[in-house]
Design goal:
This is RNA 2',3'-cyclic phosphodiesterase. Keywords: Hydrolase, Ligase. Belongs to the 2H phosphoesterase superfamily. ThpR family. It catalyses: a 3'-end 2',3'-cyclophospho-ribonucleotide-RNA + H2O = a 3'-end 2'-phospho-ribonucleotide-RNA + H(+). The protein has about 170 residues and is an alpha+beta fold. The chain has one domain: Cyclic phosphodiesterase (Cyclic Phosphodiesterase, Chain: A, Alpha-Beta Complex). The protein has three helices and nine strands.
């Protein structure tokens, strides 16, 4: 594991394999704006914000222990967060297994006293394709099927914009 800052900015996410990452990157020209770096494309499950480094053992244990299996995700249209000017790939339907994983993560974080103060019940699963973007095309795209089988704990380094995968777990 890389050396962490005293208060790393962290999130749990589903991390795509190379082929899925390339398929998401191929969608980016359609939405305009500033494309997300391909190595940063992911689906955030729980944004933790800045955390004390001493919380890492508990956060790693949650990653290892949360019950989850691989989840098939079907993305087939673009969507948009106007206030943040984010264009993103959206799911045709949110699989119950994805919602169950999110619930388990939030429950385990709360039980460990680590739940983010700003998290709320609203969860909009998406893959951010571009920032500083206008509304994306309304037309759907050919379904992009992702067998999400890697859950990760990531440090988001604000100064460089880099993501460092601190730990990962294969979902089977």
């Amino acid at each position: 594991m890389k050396n962490l800052s005293p208060q790393p900015r962290l999130f749990y996410g589903l991390w795509p394999d190379a082929a899925t990452r390339a398929a998401f990157a191929a969608l980016q020209p359609a939405v305009g704006g500033t494309p997300s770096r391909p190595d940063k494309l992911h689906l955030t499950m729980a944004f933790l914000g800045q955390r004390a480094a001493h919380e890492m053992p508990a956060l790693l244990a949650i990653l290892d222990e949360v019950p989850a299996s691989a989840i098939t995700l079907c993305f087939d249209h673009f969507s948009y967060f106007p206030k943040a000017e984010l264009s993103w790939a959206a799911l045709r339907a949110t699989p119950p297994a994805l919602l169950a994983l999110r619930t388990q993560l939030m429950r385990r974080l709360a039980c460990a006293g680590l739940a983010p103060a700003f998290e709320h019940d609203r969860f909009t699963p998406h893959v951010t394709l571009a920032r500083k973007a206008g509304p994306p095309p309304a037309a759907p795209f050919a379904p992009l099927i992702w067998q999400a089988d890697q859950l990760v704990l990531v440090e988001s380094v604000k100064s460089s914009g880099d993501y460092h995968v601190l730990a990962s777990r294969q979902l089977v």
